[in-house]
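Subject: Sanity check before I submit

Could someone independently write out the structure tokens for this chain? I want to compare against mine line by line before I put it in a report. The sequence has 115 residues.
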Amino acid sequence: MWTGSGRILIFVGDDSGTGAYTLTGGRPRLRGVWEDSTPGTSPVVAGGLLYVYDELEGKLLVRSPTSGAVLRSLPVPAGHWNSPIVVGGRIILPTGSYHDSSSSTEIEIYHLPGA
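---
Independent answer below. Compare away.
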């Protein structure tokens, strides 16, 4: 969930797509703001940006929360329902899947240069 520009946005993602909804009206209802068919695990908002992991294609998408526009696509290994963690100016993403019976996984860590 994100509050900004006088709105409350709620983000959802699954293997069928990613989208944002807002709460409207005197009798509260959800209204679609944007959506697309790009899969996504649990969306995370931090620092005014929306982070969504497409575990099927293997990419971490950095989106505008209000429009859904992809601002950056970072390559990562495919996984299974892993969610981005944003803390201390870093984006941490565990990857891999229990489906492949692997005894190892990777953790991707992104940060701005000098951070």
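---
OP: Matches mine. For the report I'm noting this point. The domain at 2-111 is CATH 2.40.128.630 (Lipocalin).
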